[in-house]
Design goal:
601 residues; four-stranded antiparallel sheet; alpha+beta
């Protein structure tokens, strides 16, 4: 039986009194009375490897010593998180899309279910010399497969977020080919949870989305121990939900290893310092050194020495661009004049992109830009409070509709009377020039923003903007939009750059993906620049890190309690789909292949 190779039975990781331990029908037909193995201490691990001292690790056929892990009682064939994500993605997507050769829901898996008397709705039906496989609830129809492929084909992500996944999609054949490990990483964590909503039943989407959130938290740049403990308690429930839905063949060692990843991260720290991405990139560099395929080792050694020599010499070259003095792609101009400004609104960093064009601001645009700058200047806030108190006096009659214009006039008169010697405040009160410079992009805080018009000509999407605003009840709320124009406002003696409606420093970057279920709507995915960290405030507690959960190249806001409060009621799942035609296979050929496989085993 193919199912004998499956590693399931994750109910043993649940609490002793959990109701799923007694559920025979939904799982493997038995009650779960076992418990998870106790975690090994450092001394236990040293005892397991003490007989390996003195053994030479080599691939030479004459010197290589085979180590029996079964005799030693250990399991040291563990893969890293990069390969675990890649294999889980292949198994899930292959089964959902019913990809030939990759799906875990084949005729062998159905016959195994029939032999074990599990999931009766999915048992194959004999019709003459044919076997009819009912469509499972986790299988997409051809129309749904087309929607999923079209979603990926039309996808535009941030600059530097991932490779161009749309090039790997074949709409005509409904196939996704040529994905790299990092593409699978992005799809599993960010894109699959958004794309399968509405295509699959909620009971099927739920564990897949929970698995995605698990890897999002696990692969963060900075980790919170309390969140790791929470997902460590949640992941057995997620795997049990998958056991109730998917066939046994999908539960290979890769999916089982997920149980141990959170506790491993608590001991070893962030995953990004231990996974294989930097190693794979360096190996790719070494392979590029090969010029003589008959002597690859010598070519790599020669290329490595040449690279080291050039690196050493470049340290002493002045006036030349080297990798030691080369600016980053998203570097920001260091304007000394702005850094020395007294007002915070004039102290900024950033770099405009594209050729500058000039235009004239109409009265409404000028008023909107001027009042927005005043409201967001820290030094002006006390004057705004004074003005509000001044307006509340019964002797003053001001209309709230003209608050902006009246405040500008009041503030300008105040500065002329009391702060005439302050050049910065005087320039601010007069307002910007109505002749402005416009750009098509801007780099700030590690983000590379483009306007919508510029995005239309690119295969990436960098025009999404999010800004934190006032929700009206004292709290904050995120507002989302698109960057239409980057405008440089020029003040007398000062200059600052901002976009049309918000200040550049207030913008964080997002990108929008199409909502398959609701036509005309889009889902928002947040992102963080690759080389930036949200550092926590100074604290002596080493377990406290940043307040956000940041995955590789991105940051997804999430409710940590949501994955722990999953309802366990109404556990019934209809495993069969009646709206999809069943798959018919030849039972004679299947029987012959099955007997041949059993004989070989």
């Amino acid at each position: 039986m193919e199912a004998s190779r499956a590693i399931w039975g994750h109910r043993r990781y649940l609490d002793e009194n959990h109701s799923w331990r007694k559920d025979k029908k939904s799982f493997d037909g038995t009650r779960e009375r076992g418990y998870a193995a106790s975690k090994l201490t450092g001394d236990d691990i040293l005892k397991q490897v003490e007989d390996l001292i003195g053994i030479t690790l080599t691939n030479h056929p004459e010197k290589k010593i085979k180590i029996s892990h079964e005799r030693q009682g250990d399991n040291w064939n563990k893969k890293d998180v990069m390969h675990i994500e890649k294999n889980i993605y292949d198994s899930l997507l292959g089964t959902i899309m019913n990809i030939k050769g990759k799906t875990k829901d084949n005729i062998k898996a159905r016959l195994d279910l029939q032999a074990m008397s599990l999931k009766l709705e999915l048992h194959p039906i004999q019709r003459g010399d044919k076997l009819v496989m009912p469509a499972a609830c986790y299988t997409l129809s051809q129309e749904e497969q087309s929607k999923f492929c079209r979603f990926l084909k039309e996808l535009k992500v941030l600059d530097g977020f991932s490779s161009n996944i749309s090039q790997c999609v074949n709409l005509k054949e409904r196939k996704i080919l040529g994905l790299k490990s990092h593409d699978c990483h992005v799809l599993l964590q960010r894109l699959i949870p958004v794309s399968i909503r509405g295509l699959l039943p909620a009971k099927v989407c739920e564990p897949i989305i929970e698995l995605s959130i698990f890897f999002t938290i696990l692969c963060a740049k900075t980790l919170r121990v309390d969140e790791l403990k929470q997902i460590d308690e949640q992941i057995p429930l997620t795997l049990c939900k998958l056991e109730k839905i998917f066939p046994p063949l999908i539960f290979d060692v890769m999916l089982h290893l997920v149980v141990h990843l959170a506790s491993e991260a608590i001991l070893g720290g962030p995953i990004r310092f231990r996974w294989m991405y930097p190693v794979e990139r360096q190996l790719y560099t070494y392979k590029s050194y090969i010029r003589n395929r008959a002597r690859p080792e010598g070519s790599i050694a020669e290329g490595y020495i040449a690279d080291e020599c050039m690196t050493f010499c470049s340290r002493y070259l002045k006036g030349f661009e080297t990798k030691f003095n080369r600016l980053e792609r998203n570097y920001e101009d260091d304007n000394r004049e702005c850094n020395e400004a007294q007002l915070s609104i004039f102290r900024h960093s950033g770099r405009a992109l594209g050729a500058a064009t000039t235009r004239y601001l109409d009265e409404r645009e000028w008023l909107q830009a001027h009042i927005y700058v005043l409201k967001n200047c820290d030094e002006v806030q006390p004057h705004i409070e004074d003005y509000n108190e001044f307006v509340r006096e019964p002797t003053n009659h001001y209309d709230d509709k003209d608050w902006d214009k009246n405040f500008i006039d009041w503030f300008q008169a105040l500065v002329y009377q009391s702060y005439r010697e302050d050049d910065d405040l005087l320039s601010l009160s007069r307002g910007p020039s109505k002749i402005v410079k416009c750009f098509t992009g801007f780099v700030i805080n590690g983000h590379r923003f483009h306007t919508e018009s510029r995005d239309n000509c690119l295969s990436t999407q960098s025009s999404g903007v999010a800004v934190v605003g006032d929700a009206g009840d004292g709290g904050d709320i995120d507002y989302y939009g698109a960057l239409v124009e980057v405008v440089e406002l020029e003040y007398p003696g000062r200059r600052k750059t901002n976009d049309h409606f918000i200040l550049a420093g207030q913008a964080s970057q997002v990108f929008y993906v199409e909502d398959i279920t609701n036509e005309g709507w889009h889902a928002v995915l947040k992102a963080q620049p690759r080389d930036s960290y949200d550092m926590p405030p100074d604290t002596d507690d080493c377990e406290i890190t940043d307040d956000g959960v940041e995955a590789y190249l991105q940051d997804e806001s999430f409710d940590a309690q949501a994955i722990a409060l999953t309802s366990l009621e109404d556990d019934y799942i209809n495993l069969r789909r009646s709206d999809i035609d069943p798959i018919i296979v030849n039972s004679v050929l299947t029987s012959k292949k099955r007997k041949k496989t059993q004989a070989e085993n």
